[in-house]
Amino acid sequence: MALPAPPPARVFAELVPAQAPTPTRAPAGRGGPPAPSGRELHVSGSAELSAGPDRARVSLRLGSRKGAAGAARRSVARRLEYIAQSARQRGVPEENMTVTEDFSRVENTYQMEAEVCITFSDFGKMQNVCNLLIEKLGTSVTISPPHFYHTPEAIDTLRRQVCVAAVGNTRRKAQEVCRLFGQSLGKPLLIREEETKEWGGHIDSHLLNSPDSLTLQERIQNATAYASCRVFAVFEIKGKENRRNKLL
């Protein structure tokens, strides 16, 4: 996927103080805010981060057709119990497994079908469980390729992190500009989030028309979410840079 071109950097600095406003006396007993110096640095900065999926869902299908209803049910029940036991022994919580069953009559036989959906937060554990079930149950169970996705909490974390990273990049850029002119960067006067973008990744939604030939890593890459953020900030310029700070 081609990444969007980064936005052009914008830096505006006013190093010559504007005409100082007439100072106002603070009320007795109160410390009023300092009068603005008129020396400001306007700068924009951006950041781009990515986050791999934090969940994977695997669907297992199995069935049985017998002449007797009880035999069809027992055949599926035994395999369902083995699947659940294998997952539990490898640390998968019970609430991360859901089972749906369908029982029907087909001509003169009884057909029992079941689907088990297991949600994993540990992808290594997912591979171990799937490999074991393929080894032990063979063709009597069909395991779909894993579907990777992000939880809403993971997406929210990515949004916060990219915003904080953009603010940090903006501040570092402002510090470098101040050093270039021998000035000292002061406190921020304004920080504004100007633009955010998100692409790639899917929040708990199936990838339609996804080829079954994709490798595990390719599926994870397809489900990776990206976010970018651009912020605008205004910083106070305090004055000449301290010699000690310059050495640091």
From TrEMBL:
Belongs to the IRAK1BP1 family. The keyword Methyltransferase does not apply. Keywords: Cytoplasm, Nucleus. InterPro entries: IRAK1BP1, SIMPL/DUF541. Its main location: cytoplasm. GO terms for cellular component: cytoplasm; nucleus. Residues 20-52 are annotated as: Disordered. This is IKBP1 protein. It comes from the Eukaryota. GO terms for biological process: immune response; positive regulation of canonical NF-kappaB signal transduction. It is found in: Cytoplasm; Nucleus. It holds the Pfam family SIMPL.
